[in-house]
């Protein structure tokens, strides 16, 4: 069993070329990037693939999704995710992250909204699956799928043959869940993973930042600097023989993207025991 490590280029913002170069230089051999950046190459996939190859990288996934609970947007959501899945297929990648839309409805999601969301997810995921791409639902703070009962409802109402799970332990923890427990519950449907850390000392799911000592940190911090039980996550993945991608992700650096992803790389290799360089 080998967990494969990918690096999200979100930390470099819109600078794709610098992100590719520095991530590759750190030893990462796969990446996820902003979908709107990747789709700039939609009519020249060969150029995008060549760019990845120049940096010894492959594309692990792209972020799709949409406003699942708005029935009037259903066809738009299906068409967009099919478009992204077609690009992924052309790039040799077989995972799409289904990110739910925001903002959250006032008072959270009702049973009717969750039912509508599940129906849209099912239809969009089936279209992706037909293209050889697995759609992985990603619960996310501040969106229509944030809290535990919303995660449970979506997983219960969607088709396990087409709809998979992309947990992010930091998002789950910040929303008040035990990430290991939730991941164990849906272990048979985990097909992609974002690996993030977060400090939980201050604020709640409505916070935009937290404080650590005298330094203000983004809500999500470098791996090992927060309070998420990352070793427990990896232990579970090993237990279930997970051999897919685990994408290291830090939204914003307080220093430089290179420094932040170096800290993350060293943590994964030294503390979690998963090689990145040479994988």
From TrEMBL:
Domain (Xylose isomerase-like TIM barrel) ranges: 21-252
Pfam short name (any one): AP_endonuc_2
Lineage, top ranks: Bacteria, Bacillati, Bacillota, Bacilli, Bacillales
Transmembrane segments: none
Protein name listed in UniProt: Inosose dehydratase
InterPro entries hit by this protein: IolE/XylAMocC-like, Xyl_isomerase-like_sf, Xyl_isomerase-like_TIM-brl
Domain of life assignment: Bacteria
Cross-referenced Gene3D superfamilies: Divalent-metal-dependent TIM barrel enzymes
């Amino acid at each position: 069993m080998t967990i494969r490590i990918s690096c999200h280029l979100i930390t470099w913002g819109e600078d794709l070329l610098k992100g590719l170069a520095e991530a590759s230089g750190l030893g990462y051999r796969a990446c996820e990037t902003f979908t709107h950046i990747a789709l700039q190459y939609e009519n020249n996939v060969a150029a995008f693939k060549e760019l990845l190859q120049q940096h010894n990288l492959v594309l692990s996934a792209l972020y799709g999704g949409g406003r699942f609970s708005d029935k009037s947007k259903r066809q738009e959501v299906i068409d967009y995710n099919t478009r992204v899945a077609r690009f992924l297929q052309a790039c040799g990648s077989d995972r799409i992250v289904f990110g739910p839309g925001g903002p959250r409805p006032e008072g959270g999601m009702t049973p009717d909204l969750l039912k509508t969301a599940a129906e849209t997810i099912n239809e969009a995921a089936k279209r992706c699956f037909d293209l050889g791409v697995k759609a992985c639902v990603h619960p996310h703070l501040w969106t229509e799928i944030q809290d535990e009962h919303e995660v449970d409802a979506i997983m219960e109402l969607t088709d396990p043959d087409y709809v998979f799970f992309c947990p992010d332990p930091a998002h789950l923890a910040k929303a008040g869940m035990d990430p290991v427990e939730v991941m164990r519950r849906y272990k048979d449907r985990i097909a992609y993973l974002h690996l993030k850390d977060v400090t939980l000392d201050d604020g709640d799911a409505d916070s935009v930042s937290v404080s650590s000592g005298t330094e203000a940190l983004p809500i999500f911090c470098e791996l090992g600097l927060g309070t998420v039980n990352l070793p427990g996550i990896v232990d579970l993945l090993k237990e279930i023989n997970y051999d897919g991608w685990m994408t290291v992700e830090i939204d914003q650096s307080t220093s430089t993207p290179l420094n932040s992803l170096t800290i993350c790389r060293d943590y994964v290799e030294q503390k979690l025991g998963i090689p990145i360089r040479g994988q």
